[in-house]
Amino acid sequence: MTTTGHMSARPAGLRRNAEGLASALPPLMADARHLASTVQLGEHGRRLSGMGSEFWQYRPAHAGDEARFIDWRRSGKADAQFVREREWQAAQSVHLWVDDAQSMEFTGDQKRQSKADRARLLALALGVLLIRAGERVGLTDPIAPPRSGEVQLLRLAHAFTRPAGEADFGAPEARAILPGSRAVFISDFMGAPEGVEKALGLAADKGVTGVLMQILDPVEEAFPYDGRTIFESMAGTMLHETLKAGDLRDRYRERLAERKERLAAFARRAGWLFTTHHTGASAQSALLWLYAALRKDH
Amino acid sequence: MFVLGPIGFTVPWLLWGLVALPVLWLLLRAIPPAPIRRRFPGVALLLGLKDDEQQTDRTPWWLLLIRMLAVAAIIAGFAGPVLNPEQTEAGDGPLLILVDGSWADARDWPRRTQRIAAALSEAGRAGRPVALVALTDIPPGELVFAAADTVARGLPGLQPRAWEPGVEDMKALTSALPEEGFDTLWLSDGIARDGRAELTDVLAARGQVKAVESLRDVRALGAATYEGGQVGVDVLRARDVAAGPTEVVARGLDPAGIERELARSAAEFASGETSVTAAFDLPPELRNRITRFEIAGEATAGAVALADDALKRRKVALVAGTVDREGLQLLAPDHYLRQALVPTAEVIEGTVGDVLLSNPDVVILADIAKVTEEGALVDWVEAGGLLVRFAGPRLAASDVGRDASDPLLPVRLRAGGRSVGGAMSWGEPKTLQPFAEGSPFRGLALPTDVTVTAQVLAQPGPDLAEATIAELSDGTPLVTRRSIGEGQVVLFHVTANAEWSNLPLSGLFVQMLERLAVSSRPVRPAEAELEGTTWVAERVLDAFGNLQEASDLPGIPGERLAEPALGPDLPPGLYASGDRLIAVNVIATGRKLAAAEWPSGTVIEGLSALRETLLKGWFLAVALTLLMIDLVASLALSGRLRGAQAGIAMVLATAILLPLPEGARAQSDADTRLIEATGSVVLAHVTTGDARVDEVAQAGLLGLSEVLFARTSVEPILPMSVDLEADDLSVFTFLYWPVTTTQSAPSPEAYRKLNRYLRSGGMILFDTRDADVAGFGAASPEGRRLQALAAPLDIPPLEPIPSDHVLTRAFYLLQDFPGRHAGRSVWVEAAPPDAERAEGMPFRNLNDGVTPVVIGGNDWAGAWAVDDNARPLLPVGSGLGGERQREIAYRFGVNLIMHVLTGNYKSDQVHVPALLERLGQ
Asked: Which domain holds residue B537?
């Protein structure tokens, strides 16, 4: 094939990167695109006339309009001249943060996606939708600042396919967030809530609004355990032994509800939105919710 | 043996293990269940939560109990528990094992032989000499006691008889008893009879008498009687014990000639009664078909009542000349005939043309000279009808049969007839001569007052003497007879009324009609009536109530037939004399059954209570069940039982505990099977209902299929089991039918299917699996069952497989056809009698087509059977020779299938040289 020779002329490093990308990316990319394709919302229009590619309205030409703006086809149907106006479309910067701590690797059932997989899928699919709408999407990390275009998707995908971190629980990184932009934090928020609150406060100070999405496995919600059990965290740093796991169920659920309540209250104060998504539910509804939440107010 | 209530233990010391149970209890209670480690991100939320209580550390008491019980069951199981352990019978010195050997024994004969075998082996262990005697078959000479194993060898030959021992038999045994003392084990049939008490006394005088009796009641059927339009069959029982109604089944041939159940009637014994009548109300057509009555579920000769002429009502057509309406009724030519026939036969009247339409058994022409429908009548007689003619003035006046013999008259007649002893003649009225040898009337007593005053005379001729079956004192024929085709014509040379003789007024007239099978007698003939007749057994009953061919029994004088006592010289069955048929039943008329009485002090033992049952398996099964429950319960308690795991554990537990349901086959399933069978060659076997036999048959056909696949171009798919009732047989080429004693006979519909299958080229391999088909039946229970099963089948004449049969060279060259048994002959369709060996040919030019059945008893499926790993399932013979025998068995199978599939192809091959030679020219 001719491509073989073409490829061999490229630097070896690029090729290695491309192959590395290709090996991990396609499943995630494909899933994300597939998921995004189920959302047909059109472009991120501002419902105002302005700079954009979409037709907005015809208006009668008045003084000051250059001749080249006149739409001759429309004007030919009438005596006056008309100018074709386009919709004003503004690009928005959206920062994504997906928790990559060990706790996200948990799944209560072999057949179910892990929380991390679901979180990455949602984030990337959201990225696909946003980039398709002309927005700029990036990570909260300085490594991938918000940009538009298909290539940015590849960068995001590449970042999402990094191996999980060492820590048991993660906290969002808010320093690289651009002022006035929007942010999406996806995590199980099982760790100490102070980290989240700190990042949220920092973001709110910069005028950043956004969304907190808590991803939980159904097992984490239901706590269906009985008998003598030693619970340990995913990285093995925390242990808790009980003789009768079933007795702890109600108290555990109480604490989980408390945690959700605390996060929701804090998000409300910062002008953010909070939701809980379960890996047992469909990803599409969560994606819709995310997309709608980002569009909500500007 | 340590006995605890009804349970004994063979290894009682193991029970000491039960003492350890409390220790185990404490140990198990002390150890908490092991914790499970779980990874769980929510642990951060759990930190700091305290357990409410420390109690669940311990195993709950009920789980402990389950484990204790399981261990206890295992200990008890290995201690060898036995239900109803057989207590050894004390005693030494000789032992006489006495069997009644009557029909009443037949019902539980296998159990009786088992009991005898047990007693024999026990006596063998104790070194006691034994004698085994059946009362119905007492050996001549003094009773000889022999070693138990010698006697045991004769045990298979011991068979019950269809009759009961008589007083003479008991006396014969009494006189044959030795002087010295011995103990007696008497396996009684439970029926009281004369001489039994005396014999018991004699035996008790020599030693201890122990009686073994079945706890079940003995039931029997008396002869069937016909009265008032109903058939009544007496059901008898020996003991007055409460039981459900007795079902009596009437069997007979259906229009297709297949024996089937025609009617069924239930009779319930009133309390205290030992006899009740089961009534059948049947239309004549059905009633005439009945061949036997039997008690449903009782396979003994006593539970069978054979039907004979007494039940049958012949259809007699009475045709008289023009009736003189003005004349007196007593002078009518057919008045006395009607009087004689109406009580015992179905009489129809009309013209010849009319009555022939109703297909009568007998047509009687009273003084009719010329028959208008002569052709039709001749045809009817040739087809087997009986035409009885009476002379009279019209016949005498006509010229029928004068110059040439008339087809409807046995002899030529002389003109005019004669008159003797009248007012215008010289002679005295003639009396009858005693009936000659060979006459059907032989033995009938002659009343002295029967005289003949006028008659028609037969033309003398060379065949007149032969045709005459009754003559007057002066030698002139009174009754003549001639056979036409399959039927016959009988002429009474006198009138049927009292005009020419007073014969019609006498009882002799009725008896003569009966002897001619015109009318049938209402009850069993008395001794006087039977005198002088000779009866030949057509078929005899065996003790199990099956009819067997009886070709080798000598004729029996009628006097003996009238005696109620049956014996070796008069076995029950059907006896024929000429056209008449008499059934001799086991239960004589008026016989009552009563339970046998034993003198006080006799040890009486039931037959059923003797079964030793090993309980080890049951105990271990209970232990396994408990452990399964424990497994599931422990998993549930420790929280390991969730979702899929729970399902798997449950399925495992139930799969181990529950045997898979059998036989549930949906219709669609059957269709798929048939479609599969249509597409390829498939070997199939008939399901017998015996799970083990079916399994072996299936495995056997699997083995044969694999051998065929490997060695020949026949590539069968997996073998199938065939339900004769439900499946369509036409898609199968080969059916293997293992015969079991318990197999129920297929329905008439299934037999029709089987016959169609056999006619259209299918083959059935019957296998009695008993290595003994030498007697072609009767030798073994399976053989008898095979006879019963195959009787309605459309099977051609058979012969032992000849050495040049195609089966010997269809693929391999074979001369033996062993299975697991290298038994004797294998039977196939007989070669046509005109089969000849052509010049220069090694084989005869044998019949075309495939033999529809192959019958043998070598348990071929057993030899062919392989398991799922294609290893032989059952051992054959021993060592290398056994494997060789298995190989030959496979070769037989290959030959058989080749024969089924290619027919006489190999037979045709024989002619190849001749064909080639012809082509060359």
From this structure: 527-583
